[in-house]
Amino acid sequence: MKKFPLILIVVVLVLVGWFAFGSTKTGASLLDDTAGITLYRFGNAIPDQGFIEIHFRADEEQWWIANAFIGDEWVVKNQRALVRKDSPNRFAFTAPEAAKGTRGPVNIRIELTKNTVRDPDAFNGIDGRSYAAELSVVDIVEQFGLNVPGSSEELKRGVGILVPSAEARDFDTQRKGDVPDLSGGPMDCSAVAATNNILSLMDEHLSDAEVPDPPAMIEELKKDMQWNDGIINRNFLTGKNAFVKRYHLPIRTEEIVQPRMDDLEDALSSGGAVEISTRMIRSSSGKPNTGHTFTGVAASQDGSSISIGVHDPATPQGTDMLQTTISAGDNPYIILRYPLWDGIVLVDAIFVQAWMEDGEENSSESHTAPPEEENNISTTTAPSAKVAMKEIEGLIRIDEFYPLFQFHESPKDACPGPHWHADSPVYAISGFSMSDPDRDACGFGRVGIGTGIVHKKKVTEAEIGRFTSLKWENL
Question: Which domains does the chain have, with CATH numbers?
């Protein structure tokens, strides 16, 4: 009779321990034996932007959380991992000083957990995995056809501050089934993404349609989409529709211009196949604007942490998990952190494919953004003679004008002369935002030199109103 209470106590203690410490369970057993690092070089600059690539031993339906350390530097923080045995994940990161200029393997440690971890000390005692990761450096000049005349963000060639909306919701969603991750020429990304999704839908719905093999299919789609050193979006939709009709595929495509994260989540969760079109602008090394198209395979949002999983013809096979922010303004853009571009990457449209059942119409359509925002990333009002103007001072960073009152001048310290710092994110007149880029040294630049030169700008009342609604300050 006395054994029963004792057994009950043991069971209760086991359950309490499970719930108390279950959140520390890691996925170290899911991690394979290899890991790699790829850094991208822009011109003669020392490469510091890239991907950490990890491989897995098994498939998991649930999402995991990936963290990575190089030495004591926490370089990948709480990023969603899509765990697939035959599909590695890549996570964007900025290389610490210890890894810059290194030629041999880089020692990294990967932690895979079920829950987010805020304190790096919490990893002590958790079973992660350490690697001597092979390092490769890729020169980026030809990756997007940048050496070919006629580059434009409208031409998809090759490869701010977060402002959550009041109705934003957390979600985790992914494309069901196997999605190919094909590659092609340096300016074939749109046709490659379309081929990935058409083949995945055919496989998912057991279609016996006789389409060309993947390389020939990419070439045929390029012709349909009027490829001319790249593809523009208005030809993408009509070209894909022509291909679909030719092979009697019951696929309907919807274009959503300037999509919200909700649009992407709805598309993936409903079984849609998604291409993600981007504009790549404001290169810090002066490269011409260009564009790129990804195959979308996953998306997640957990509070302010947002990521999008893509198959990218510009990277090796696997899923690239790109950190995502949302620009400010009434019609915000999705902004991707993409190591292959040293500027801003905006999602300008998504194309959503659905497999139509018998009797459903498979025509394609486009939903456009409000006309005043559709073709403008940051708008400034063109003043007429009647528009009131005000001249203000500010700093210019990547073509954006930041009012000066947000900065404070600091004396010589680790920086060899007076320089500008800011204690919180600073806002441009357009609504874009950035944090202090060099907090331990010269911040936003030395006073009177380069980016630290104070400029004057005339702004309209509309621009002032947009700025003050973000910064809560009066100019």
Answer: 23-138 (2.60.40), 155-374 (3.90.70.10), 389-471 (no CATH)
